[in-house]
Structure formats: structure tokens, C-alpha cells
Known about the structure:
alpha+beta
Amino acid sequence: MDVARALARRRMVRSFDGTLVDPDWLDGLCATALWAPTAGNCAGVRMHTLYGDARPAFFAIATDASWRERSSRYEGLSRAGAIVVVTSRPQDYATRYGEDDKRASGLGALDAWPVPYWHGDAAMATMALLLLLEESGWSAALWGDFGRASGLLTWLGADDESLFASVLVGRDDHHDRRSASLDRAVAPRRSRVSRVATPPDAPAR
Length: 205
Ligand SMILES: Cc1cc2nc3c(=O)[nH]c(=O)nc-3n(C[C@H](O)[C@H](O)[C@H](O)COP(=O)(O)O)c2cc1C
């Protein structure tokens, strides 16, 4: 499958049929996804993979009991065959940008960063993983579980990391309830691309 086709075909799926995912295969796929670009070659993104009993344990930590009771999505999501929790290590970025060749950036301290590249790196690696899953015939949902981030990170033994999101992986059972987000009237993709005319006083190349 080519990249354009994988991009166009990929959709979030939030109801799985319970098929398990081979841990060695998915761990390898995550490592492949980590070919994604990384600012200053910080390599600060981590992927924590959860299989077997770690999956219900994840839901117990990452969601609350009242949500699990009232959500019409919980059951389908809980049948994910594996979960990948994507995190990053912000301090790696401050350390790297404090090194000799990057010091002039002024980004040697975390609070100096106007754009937190650790989240950018995490997003790039996550997108790479979503495309690789699409190519392999698996479905996935990106889950923004930041509301319970600190408990989740402690449970993972990753207190020094920053949570980006979790990727729930499984086989589509075709009982997904369409997300209300998809009914929003958003600007067409082509209209979100704007070609900037060369200003008359731009320096000649
Ligand atoms: C950063 C980010 C966070 C998201 N968090 C959630 C989430 O918590 N729950 C959810 O159901 N979908 C989540 N989504 C999925 C979006 O709702 C979805 O990508 C969007 O509606 C477009 O649908 P599509 O990906 O199927 O094309 C998230 C997507 C992104 C990029």
C-alpha cells in the first residue's frame, strides 16, 4: 500500500473484535515507527506496549468507573488486542538543546520552549505507527487519556515522562458508533493549503 492510500484509508476505529496482537510483531512495528523525525536527534519518544492482562489494568487506571459504566464505547474499546502508550522525555530535549551546537537556541531549560518539540516528536511517531498499522490491515483509535496522566505514568514506571496519547490496536468489529467529530463542517483539506505569493521586496535568490 502506498503512503497516500494509507493516509486516505486510515480512520479511527473505536470498536474491536477482541483479536489479540502478537507482541513481538507489534513491538517491532513500534520500533519501526520510531524512524519518525525527532528534533535535534533527541530520540525522546517512548512507546509502552500492553498485552494480555495489562489491557484491563490500563482501562482501570486510564479511565474512571463512572465513565466505564455510562460510555457506549467502553465495551468495544476494551476489546482492543493491544495498547501502545506513547510518551516522551522532555528533559532529553532541554539537555540536547543546551549542548554546544544548540546552545544559541536558548532552549536549554524546559520553560524556554515556545513549542514543545517532545509532543511534536510523539505525534510524528504516533502517525507513523497509525500508517504502519493501516498498511498491515489493523485498526486503531488514538485515545487522549491526559486527564489521568500522572496515575498512568506512575503505573508504567515512567514518572519522568510526559504522556502524549494511547493507541488502541485491534481488528474492526464494524460496530463502531460514528464519532460526532466527523459531522463537524470543517474547511476542505485543499482550502487549508495556501500558497504564499513572493513578496515584491523578497531578497533575490
Ligand atoms: C491529538 C489527538 C487526540 C485525539 N483524542 C481522541 C480521544 O481522546 N478520543 C477519541 O475518540 N478520538 C480521539 N482522537 C481522534 C479524532 O477524533 C479523529 O482523528 C478525528 O475525529 C478525525 O477522524 P479520523 O481520524 O477517523 O479521520 C484524537 C486525535 C488526535 C489527533
